[in-house]
Design brief:
Elements: H1 7-25, E1 35-38, H2 44-49, E2 50-54, E3 57-59, E4 62-64, E5 74-79, E6 83-84, E7 96-105, E8 115-121, E9 151-156, E10 170-175, E11 182-185, E12 187-189, E13 202-204, E14 211-219, E15 224-230, E16 242-244, H3 249-252, E17 256-264, E18 272-282, H4 299-302, H5 317-333, H6 341-350, E19 354-355, H7 358-364, E20 373-377, E21 380-386, E22 393-399, H8 405-417, E23 428-432, E24 437-442, H9 449-455, H10 462-482, E25 486-488, E26 497-499, E27 505-507, E28 514-516, H11 538-541, H12 546-562, H13 577-586, H14 603-619, H15 630-637, H16 669-677
Parallel strand pairs: 19-23
Antiparallel strand pairs: 1-18, 2-5, 3-4, 4-18, 5-17, 6-17, 7-14, 7-18, 8-9, 8-17, 9-10, 10-11, 12-13, 14-15, 15-16, 20-21, 21-22, 22-24, 23-24, 25-28, 26-27
The chain binds 2-acetamido-2-deoxy-beta-D-glucopyranose (8 copies).
The site of one 2-acetamido-2-deoxy-beta-D-glucopyranose has 5 residues, from loops.
Domain Protein kinase: 368-646
Membrane topology: Single-pass type I membrane protein
Family: In the N-terminal section; belongs to the leguminous lectin family.
């Protein structure tokens, strides 16, 4: 910092600031840019910059656009300062960009709701007489008039035939008129094809009962207005849902406009509209990325000592017997503390998903008819059904009454999964507790992976299997590293991997998941998981870690590649799948383990199959330190990173086989020896 400025230069640089503004004044007209970002609206700073009108208010960290209980009402929240959206001299429109996350909570009784809108309006304040289908944007006085100067993007979940709505889940551009200028069904676009014709072009985004992320970008140089929606928060679709370049905004806008949100209610008092986060930028920059802040997300679970139980994955009578003995011992050791009714009820209400009535769900599932039963699992039974009012297909999980432990898992599941959004997780729609505990999920049309894999292996090509494994790995990475709190799933297995319409994997069943703050030492009072998928060390460390999830995922890989169930003895040689694979590997004969229906495929696939199989073996390595990190697994499956070298397995019989695990007592010397090593 020891350079000298030439005296002359110093002189001019001192004078320069005096000259520049006045010199530019007459030449370049001033364009005001606006740039803001709110990840939540709880702060005094945010509340000072936004005003809520009519039925709208700030609620905790959110904007709530209509008052709880309000009927025939509307509300608006607007950014206080005017925004320049036309060039001062040319009056050409200027670019703008916005992102936000909204949540529509429909009526508890009917599942119905109206809509929410992003508005660009000429004045501050709300619009009187803008209830019901007007979404707080127009009234019958202002609708259809060019003097209204209002652009809105509506997210409408009610079909008003009188306003020419196409369906009850659409996105529309409204130009001075509630009859949309352009509209389309809400969807996540995966192709640029102008209409969504099949699964390759995109998939529906149901806008009720879920946080929905929206991107709206107007590029003035191309006059293109793009709108995208996604329920995978933070994941912007590659292609815009609506991309229209025919608007004349210079005609529509005034020089200064106000931006914000509006919503309205009709006769249903329990419908609520929330905005969780919002960013905006005018004149060239893209709006900042928004996310839901974690401020109160863990409040519901913080005080609850959730005690994790053991899920039975009943595979083979011998194993079941072993587990039963094991469980019996565990139970005796544990003193379970139960939550009170009130505690878990209030915990549930903190969760985002909607509360359904029992009546609604009974109607949807034909009174839990046997014909609607999809299956039964550790905690109870699952039924499929359709919500009569909305036509949404659902899977309802009825938690068995006997399972007292299920209560904690139920709370855990609702409060955990209710907040998670990822394209490879099963979305939880809601819950009911009137008559027993019920969880409501989006129905996954292809059922669970184990059903297809073990009953119709020929229906799963290698590409599909690889895609499924990549999906599960992506979900695990999200849980382990990308979500704000580290989540250990604890029960990764084929029957918890659901398949959506495009055969993408959706990891479900968070009954055993527990929330951790990152960097917290994890220790639980009980061991949890499903037979064959459980890492050997979890039997004595009683800790669920990323490495135990990786072990379970490894077991899943082995099932997907071999087409055999992990927990079942390999009959030919009567040993566990892992021992069998280790032997094959030492003999350089792994190809023998590959599901025969896969071997028909080309050489490139065969090479990848072998890599994935070895990855599975590595993930199931007894020493947790040898198992790859979740992030590494994702990279290997995507072909971005080679497989690490496999440590040699000198003598498999010296390693602890998970199947043999409960045969040892916990104080057995081999356990202790192993424990000190790790
Ligand atoms: C809207 O209604 C409120 C309350 O009735 C009233 O104070 C306000 O003047 C009305 N605004 C307009 C523009 O009519
Ligand atoms: C608006 O609605 C009110 C109440 O329904 C009605 O009295 C009035 O005539 C309507 N105005 C227009 C311009 O349609
Ligand atoms: C924009 O929407 C209008 C009205 O639906 C339509 O006529 C026009 O073709 C659209 N333009 C583009 C570029 O998509
Ligand atoms: C916003 O998120 C996307 C990923 O969805 C990323 O590509 C982009 O760089 C982010 N933008 C900013 C400004 O961080
Ligand atoms: C709008 O979407 C189209 C098609 O997805 C894309 O080509 C274009 O770059 C997008 N423009 C903006 C401003 O995002
Ligand atoms: C938009 O409207 C303005 C004012 O009516 C007009 O001068 C201009 O030519 C229009 N622009 C386009 C692209 O049609
Ligand atoms: C608008 O479009 C032009 C031309 O395609 C492009 O150069 C520019 O980067 C775009 N601006 C924004 C903000 O996307
Ligand atoms: C607006 O905000 C974005 C993201 O925070 C930032 O990248 C950009 O530089 C800002 N623009 C201005 C003009 O402040």
């Amino acid at each position: 910092m020891n350079y000298r400025i030439h005296p002359l230069l110093r002189f001019t640089s001192c004078l320069l600031p005096l000259f520049i503004p006045s010199a530019l004044w007459g030449v370049v007209s001033q364009t005001q840019t606006t740039n803001f970002s709110f990840n939540g609206f709880g702060s005094a700073d945010a509340r000072a910059q936004i005003t809520c009108y009519q039925s709208a208010s700030f609620q905790e960290n959110n904007l709530q656009l209509t008052e709880t209980g309000a009927v025939q009402a509307s509300g608006r929240c607007l950014y206080n300062k005017p925004i320049q959206l036309l060039h001062s001299e040319t009056h050409n429109p200027l670019s703008f960009s916005t992102q936000f996350i909204f949540f529509i909570q429909p009526s508890a009784n009917s599942g119905l709701a109206d809509g929410i809108a992003f508005v660009i309006a000429p004045t501050l304040g709300g619009v009187n007489g803008s209830s019901q289908g007007y979404i707080g944007i127009f009234s019958n006085e202002t609708n259809g008039k060019s003097s209204t100067h209002t652009l809105a993007v509506e997210f409408d979940t009610y079909k008003n035939p009188e306003y020419e709505d196409m369906d009850d889940n659409h996105v529309g551009i409204d130009v001075n008129n509630i009859v949309s200028y352009a509209a389309t069904s809400a969807a996540y676009r995966t192709s640029s094809y102008p209409t969504i014709q099949n699964a390759n072009d995109g998939y529906a985004v149901l806008m009720r009962n879920a946080a929905v992320h929206v991107w709206i970008d107007f590029n003035a140089s191309t006059n293109q207005l793009n709108i995208s929606v996604s329920r995978d928060l933070g994941v912007k679709p590659t292609y815009a849902l609506i991309s229209n370049s025919s608007l004349n905004l210079s005609e529509l806008f005034n020089n200064d406009m106000y931006v914000g949100f509006s919503a309205s209610t009709g006769t249903l008092p329990t419908v609520l509209y929330y905005v969780y986060a919002w960013s905006f930028s005018s004149n060239g920059h893209l709006a900042a990325n928004v996310s839901i802040v974690s401020e109160n997300t863990s409040k519901g679970t913080r005080n609850i000592a959730i005690i994790i139980g053991v899920v039975l994955g009943a595979v083979g009578s011998v194993i079941t017997l072993l587990i039963s003995l094991y469980m019996y011992r565990r139970r005796k050791l544990l003193k379970l503390k139960y939550l009170s009714q009130d505690q878990w009820r209030s915990a549930l209400q903190e969760g985002l998903p909607q509360e359904f009535t029992y009546h609604e769900l009974a109607k949807a599932t034909n009174n839990f008819n046997e014909k609607n039963r999809l299956g039964s699992g550790g905690f109870g039974e699952v039924f499929q059904g359709t919500i009569a009012t909305s036509g949404v297909s659902i899977a309802v999980k009825r938690i068995s009454n006997e399972s007292k432990q299920g209560l904690k898992e139920f709370v855990s599941e609702v409060t955990t999964i209710g907040r998670l959004r990822h394209r490879n997780l099963v979305p939880l729609l809601g819950w009911s507790q009137e008559k027993g505990l019920l969880l409501v999920y989006e129905l996954m049309p292809h059922g669970s992976l184990d059903q297809v894999l073990f009953n119709h292996p020929e229906q799963l090509s290698w590409d599909q299997r690889l895609n499924i494994l990549r999906g599960v790995a992506a979900a695990l990475l999200y849980l382990h590293e990308e979500y704000e709190q580290k989540i250990i799933h604890r029960d990764v297995k084929a029957s918890n991997v659901m398949l959506d319409a495009q055969m993408n994997a959706r990891l479900g069943d968070f009954g055993l998941a527990r929330l951790y703050g990152h960097d917290v030492v994890h220790s639980t009072t009980n061991v949890a998981g499903t037979w064959g998928y459980m890492a050997p060390e979890s039997f004595f460390t009683r800790k669920a870690t990323e490495q135990t999830d990786v072990f379970s995922f490894g077991a899943l890989i082995l099932e997907v590649v071999t087409g055999r169930r992990i927990g079942v003895m390999i009959e030919e040689i009567s040993c566990s799948m892992l021992e069998w694979l280790w032997t094959l590997q030492r003999n350089n004969n792994l190809v023998e383990a590959i599901d025969p229906v896969l071997l028909k495929e080309d050489k490139d696939s065969n090479d990848m199959i072998k890599i994935v199989l070895e990855l599975g073996i590595l993930c199931c390595f007894p020493d947790p330190k040898v198992r790859p990190l979740t992030r590494r697994i994702v990279q290997i499956l995507n072909g971005e990173t080679p497989l690490p070298t496999m440590p040699s397995i000198a003598s498999p019989s010296s390693l602890l086989s998970p199947v043999a695990m409960p045969l040892f007592s916990e104080s057995s010397s081999s356990f202790l020896a192993y424990k000190t090593e790790t």
